[in-house]
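Re: weekly structure request thread

Next one in the queue (163 aa):
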Amino acid sequence: MHGLRCAAFCAILLCPPPLLASTVFRCEDANGHVTFTLQGCPAEQAQYLQQAYNPTPGSGKPTPLAKPARASRSKAAAKSSEPVVVGEQEDGCGNLVTGSERRTAIIKQQIRSGMHRSDVESSLGTPDRISSQNGQTRYHYRDQRGNNRQVSFDEAGCVKGKR
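Done, posted below.
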């Protein structure tokens, strides 16, 4: 039993406590390359002693973060409540119809000014007849009840008006 206590005591003495701070060697060569080591520096490098302290998290006072700079009055007045759109997609028809309005109109089989020919065909199907006059194209539709419908397009292929 006495031998076990002696062995435990020796083991405790041989285990070094965790080092919170130590001195290391800072080695700098002729090119300015810096190396940190515990063994020392080669003869051709300059050797400096460096204190290394790595505190454990939560020890000591917290380091304050940088305070944000106050905006000047001229910058604050220049800001507007309107969002700035940097990369708006141009649909070729003046962006008169948004994507959600376009989808809703196609589902309800409605035609709106600013829609493309492909949108009209998605909504109403292939036209029964197509006519062109003075650069304007018209799609003619006839439903099952005999009702006629015309959709006019401008030179860019956008809906100009409907009848």
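Residues 2-14 form the longest helix (13 residues). The mean pLDDT is 79.
Next request, please.
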